[in-house]
Amino acid sequence: MAFAGRVRSSLPLVSKLLRSDSLAAAHGSASERALLCPAFTNSELSRNFATAPAKTERIKVPLALFGGSGNYASALYIAAVRANALEKVDVELNDLVEASKKSPLFSQFTKDLSVPADVRVKAINDICGQAKLSDVTNNFLVVLAKNGRLRHIDSIAKRFLELTMAHKGEVKAIVTTVIPLPAEEEKELKETLQDIIGKGKKVLLEQKIDPSILGGLVVEFSQKVFDMSIKTRARQMERFLREPINIGNL
Question: From CA 174, how far away is CA 218, in angstroms rounded?
């Protein structure tokens, strides 16, 4: 809540910057232009916003992520690990996403590509300063601002969460039901998933309610989906009943 308040307190400045047309667009440096190239590597990208000199040891991301958001999230992970600030950066990034959801002005600011890059950077630096964000998070947001990627902050944060959970050995499992599972059934399901996933990892169970599945449950984890809903079973039965009967096999 305090973080959201600090972000909101800086919104008048953002509004002023958005209305200002006196600043010219900044010219990107060679490293900034490299960030726009889809061929960049995670280690190269992370060095653009790491605050300390790169260490000689190679840091390996716990999950292979792809696409633009995956590349940025992986690079942020490497920079955060190097700075020994993984947990802090994770909290700050998610707090920023939540704060942006509550502020239409800030949300518009992140999505408006007509705002000159230097205006975006100044606004981000001022917001980060007032919110007292870490240097890693601040520098990362500046990179996004320079390259017009602030509008992807939500998807980047989600991919970054995948990396931090994998780093801690956590596996998120989503169970969808018509009504909330009783505590005993939730415990039993969690224990079953824990047996499937194996030792060394911790299951984090998230419940979702969806009356449209009619009954039963749907379990999603580790890119796997186990659909045991009545809705899916009814569709399967319907397809079976509509299949033509081969009298010759009777």
Answer: 8
